[in-house]
Prior knowledge:
The complex is a heterodimer.
Chain A: H1 2-10, H2 12-43, H3 50-67, H4 70-74, H5 79-106, H6 114-136, E1 141-142, E2 151-154, E3 157-160, H7 161-180, H8 184-194, H9 196-201, H10 206-227, E4 238-239, H11 242-248, H12 251-257, H13 262-282, H14 287-290, H15 298-309
Antiparallel strand pairs in A: 1-4, 2-3
Chain B: H1 14-17, H2 24-39, H3 51-55, H4 58-84, H5 92-107, H6 121-145, H7 148-168, H8 170-173, E1 186-187, E2 197-198, E3 203-205, E4 208-210, H9 212-235, H10 238-248, H11 250-255, H12 260-285, H13 296-309, H14 314-343, H15 349-353, E5 356-357, E6 366-367, E7 377-378, H16 379-397, H17 401-415
Parallel strand pairs in B: 5-6, 6-7
Antiparallel strand pairs in B: 1-2, 3-4
Helix pairs in contact in B: 4-9, 4-12, 4-13, 4-14, 5-6, 5-7, 5-12, 6-12, 10-12, 13-14, 13-17, 14-16
Amino acid sequence: xxxxxxFAIAGPQIFTQTFAKALALGSLYALxxxxxxxxxxxxxxxNFSHGAMAxxxxxxxxxxxxxxxxxxxxxxxxxxxxxFLSLAAAVLLTAVLGVVVERTTIRPLIGEPLFSMAMITLxxxxxxxxxxxxxxxVTNRVLGVPWQAQxxxxxxxxxxxxxxxxxxxxxxxxxxxxxFFKTRLGIAMRATxxxxxxxxxxxxxxxxxxxxxxGSGAAMAAxxxxxASMPPWPASGVASRESAFxxxxxxxxxxxxxxxxxxxALAGGMIIGFAEIYAGQYLSGYTDVLGAGYQQVVPYIVMxxxxxxxxxxxxxxxxxxxx
Amino acid sequence: xxxxxxxxxxxxxxxxxxxLFPTRVQQVALGVFVLVILLMPFDLPVIDQLxxxxxxxxxxxxxxxxxxxxxxxxxxxxxxxxxxxxxxSLGHAFFMGVGAYTAVLLGGPDSGxxxxxxxxxxxxxxxxxIAAALVGVLVAPAAVRVRGLYLxxxxxxxxxxxxxxxxVFPEVAGPGALGRKWPRLEFRIxxxxxxxxxxxRKGKWLWFEVTQHxxxxxxxxxxxxxxxxxxANLARSRTGRSWAAIRDRDIAxxxxxxxxxxxxxxxxxxxxxxxxxxxxxLASFSIQxxxxxxxxxxxxxxxxxxxxxxxxxxxxxxxxxxFVILTPHFVERFxxxxxxxxxxxxxxxxxxxxxxxxxxxxxxxxxVSQTALGFPLPVAALDEIIYGALIIAFLLFEPQGLYGMWVxxxxxxxxxxxxx
Lengths: 323, 420
């Protein structure tokens, strides 16, 4: 009911514009949350280095597309086609990074307390972030997004193509994960998430499942990092430190939906995205009271409120605690 | 009851077993240690030549050690919460910020747009701790409801909300990224002109000339000793045992009659008290402190300190603090030393030149001449990478931290020559 009232006050254009932006931001959060969830489900690790991996992904894209122009050297065709190939290459490279990280640092610690696992990803975050900050800061790394900052108009509302791209990318990723869970390997992964030992007893190569989970998690991070660096977003078309910090704002989405639920990732991302954007749009009259940039705190407040009611998020599995 | 002579591990009473320094060897070692740290800041012939101290120069290292002492207070606090009570908190920086802003509100100068009451240190320092503790009590019910990683992330939320609040109230936090002048470490009885004890200026104590860093060092040393003894005693008290029970298995603890709510509330309150005092001291010590510095990385640093030092041990927290705070300075020194070697005429200069880049355009992995980010890594970036690598190395190879290393060495020599 309140939304309808706001709709009447602010007019349909603003409402549609805000809706599109919220949907786009929500889907980016959902995409990030999906990466967290994939990793958490299989290895019981909350990957704090997700943001650093997102930044690394954007850096890889700028390397492959802008600096080296790798596909353009060998293939004919328009540069937007090359861009998509570079996107795939960057995502793949980040996935390799994820696999390497898993194999070298996570695998030896499987089964350790939560604290150790969280700590090791925090340490990874420090290392990966430092290296990629260092690399990104040499020059202004342009991503060369084909649709730049172009917008299209629907009924007077101006909507950026990047918003559409974010929604599409998220849709593709979620569909891919959904389809993957139906394959043999996907079933193996779900079995591992359910019970590692039982899965091993069934002959599932649990180590490989971990590698795949981390690889795909890192790939999701790269996707989200790249699609969150496009022109209307703060980073606006360059690989910058923004993307590393952006991910910390997605943590509420992960927690809100529940750490181990794919559906929760989608729901949490959308709720947080809509809350942030709508608060930013319709409470802007109260900026004096709330302080500039208050909308970035909204996700955390929503998260704290939900956690007090549902300690394992909206869709998270409640831990059965035994004495 | 004393332990029996010649049988140091034979305890005949509970009191004897829970003594802080049960054996004669430990008591002597403690005495020597106290003597060394008391004499450390002075220019003395023997101690000055100790390798660690010689490596860093006078005033510079004393300042670093002072910073480490302040961090030690906060680390001891987090040790109670995370090490003993087992609650993962990434919000320690938030509690430090609460303490610091309380301190500046009570002790800072009142100048037009900035609020401050100009009260003396004996009010603002305890008040900083108490304010943080009260906020801790408010947060604690969440810890009863939310567990494990979920609690960790919820406390990250605190950090971000705290940062935002510091931007909303520039009257307290100071304008923009610059921050404001923090109350200085000066002791007054009330608001009189001349402080009777001023830790920010040179002076004369008895017949010794002491610099401001030496004065601060002794003041902080007393505080750290006090906080360390309190937390060691807490650990072996009823409260400390209830925390350990909650950490090990909260449901089992509750069944045995340990009140979970009260244990977690006291853990949060006391840990936040430590953090508040440390935050006030840190801001005051740094003179100008950027409001954005109370961020997640600061919280992570304290968890790293505990991890590297050894969870749940007072000695671990202290050792970890010094290790984490001093390492970057050693790395810096080492990089510059490599630079000097590479520039020199020595036999190995070509070898070191392969690692460091001295001027612009010179090849190397580390740059000693420039601080801009880029391929020859600036020393600051190298620090960060080593910091991360250390955490990983400790997690993979020595999860018990420095304390665990010490236990291994001790046990080896205990059983020598029959160690295995």
